[in-house]
Amino acid sequence: MFSTWVLLLPFLSSLPALVQAGETCNATSVCASRAPCCSEFGFCGTDEFCLGGCNALSSHEKDSCKPAPVCRDATYTFADNSRILSNVTYYEGNATAHDWVLDSGNMFNTNSSGGELALTLTKENGGSRMSSTRYVFYGTITAKLKTGRWPGVVVAFITMSDIKDEIDWEFPGDGGRVGETNYFWQGVIPEKSNGDKHEADTETFSNYHDYTVNWQPETLTFLIDGKVVRTVKRSEAVVNGVSHYPSTPSRVQLSIWPAGIESSAPGTVEWAGGMIDYEHEDYKSAGQFYTLVKSIEIKCADTQPTTGNITSYVWGADSTSQSPVVIYSNSSTLLNGASGMHGAIQQPLQLWMTGLVGLLVVFGVCM
Ligand SMILES: *[C@@H]1O[C@H](CO)[C@@H](O)[C@H](O)[C@H]1NC(C)=O
Ligand SMILES: *[C@@H]1O[C@H](CO)[C@@H](O)[C@H](O)[C@H]1NC(C)=O
Ligand SMILES: *[C@@H]1O[C@H](CO)[C@@H](O)[C@H](O)[C@H]1NC(C)=O
Ligand SMILES: *[C@@H]1O[C@H](CO)[C@@H](O)[C@H](O)[C@H]1NC(C)=O
Ligand SMILES: *[C@@H]1O[C@H](CO)[C@@H](O)[C@H](O)[C@H]1NC(C)=O
Ligand SMILES: *[C@@H]1O[C@H](CO)[C@@H](O)[C@H](O)[C@H]1NC(C)=O
Question: Which UniProt keywords apply (predicted)?
């Protein structure tokens, strides 16, 4: 079985070590068979460790993680929050039952103008993150949302693959009309940041804007209110002969995250516009900081038909691009014998709250 991993990770010079349940895993120390799945936070386990975010490159076998629910065209609105599972602990991999899972924090529905979803940040909850149950493997994703306007508070709308391909819209602090875009390949921190800044017509706290990621196999386009503000080409993302272009099925995630806190590095605090002020008038009147989400539209752009018996994406053989090939499959995405609740191990969600940018700034790399 070790040969699988030598094939999967041809760039490794030695065989991977095997890691037990609850211990940390990575591409060089993969999980042992008894706790085969490496969670998105880098811990070995079973059950929910094998669902959304499970990293095949650090798991026991490439197919240890459950197959990823395939993309379906949809427009999600939030007249109520019935399609969002409010506690991810109860998620069993059934993307028909739930469109979204709340990974951490709190949400509520405002009921105003047809209903809005609010994700909250309080002193106590450490922020909130919601993930789609289905994956997108190329497609156009548009979020109509209102950001924060508070120093130290970051709002993010991103796509994140299980092997850490990532595409970001980020709104740190009081950016006025500004949103930031970024992208990453397999969690690699580029020598020169891929980040960029863009302006909406009006400021982003009081006004809804459409933020779009149009992610196609060869071109990645970012739009505000339907207007292209940035284009990235796969052919331009080559580093040392390998294209560092996001290329694997990804979940859509929305989050609000505290960057301006004591435990953050100075670069983090600066990027986010300073320390969070929990005495802020907005915080006192609302009882929380929040981001409002009006709708999320997903138009899939799979490179193969996903009709009929196709239910999931699974990992296939390696390719020369150093990304494993993705196979369209009819395999079930459900946990076997799922019974409703699984022994959760406390994992540091906050590190991945806003994707790699969040992780970078936690460790003090200034964007
Ligand atoms: C991978 O995990 C092992 C075991 O926890 C650790 O010793 C090693 O430093 C990690 N490697 C990387 C690249 O993080
Ligand atoms: C989710 O459910 C589990 C099991 O009931 C519970 O221990 C945990 O506190 C819940 N999490 C939240 C955020 O409510
Ligand atoms: C998944 O959820 C749908 C919708 O709630 C339900 O009809 C279906 O039976 C569920 N599948 C399984 C295997 O539980
Ligand atoms: C929204 O409306 C529903 C149904 O009318 C009600 O149960 C709920 O309490 C309302 N929520 C808020 C935040 O007002
Ligand atoms: C789906 O069904 C078709 C026709 O029944 C079959 O040819 C194909 O192999 C199936 N695909 C998978 C992934 O099982
Ligand atoms: C997947 O398709 C194959 C044949 O194409 C079939 O034998 C198998 O039962 C299918 N599996 C599921 C879970 O539908």
Answer: Glycosidase, Hydrolase, Membrane, Signal, Transmembrane, Transmembrane helix
Amino acid 252 reads: V
- Whole-model pTM? 0.89
- For residue 26, the tally of other CB atoms under 10 A from its CB is 14
CATH classification of the domain holding 114? 2.60.120.200
Q: Which ligand 2 atom is the nearest neighbour of the CA of 341?
A: 4
Q: Residue 258: inside a domain, yes or no?
A: yes
Q: 316 C-alpha to center of ligand 6: Å?
A: 17
Query: In total, how many domains does the chain have?
Result: 1
Strands 107-109 and 196-199: unpaired
160 phi, psi to nearest 5 deg: -140, 120
Give domain status of residue 142, yes or no: yes
For residue 6, the model assigns a pLDDT of 30
pLDDT tens sequence across 288-323: 999 999 999 999 999 999 998 999 999 987 766 677
Residue span of the structural domain in which 284 resides: 69-300
Which residue from 22, 16, 101 is spatially nearest to 62, judged by alpha carbons?
Answer: 16
Q: How many CB atoms lie within 10 A of CB 151?
A: 18
Q: Note the pLDDT tens digit of each residue in 250-275.
A: 999 999 999 999 999 898 899 999 99
For residue 37, tell me if it sits in a domain: no
Quick check: is 180 catalytic?
no
Q: Which ligand 1 atom lies nearest to the CA of residue 23?
A: 5
Q: Could you say which ligand is closest to the alpha carbon of residue 329?
A: 5
Which ligand has its closest atom nearest to the C-alpha of 332? 6
The CA R_g of the chain, rounded to the nearest whole Å, is 20
Torsion of CA 299, 303, 306, 311, to 10 degrees: -100
Residue with tokens 């709708």: 295
Domain-located, residue 98: yes
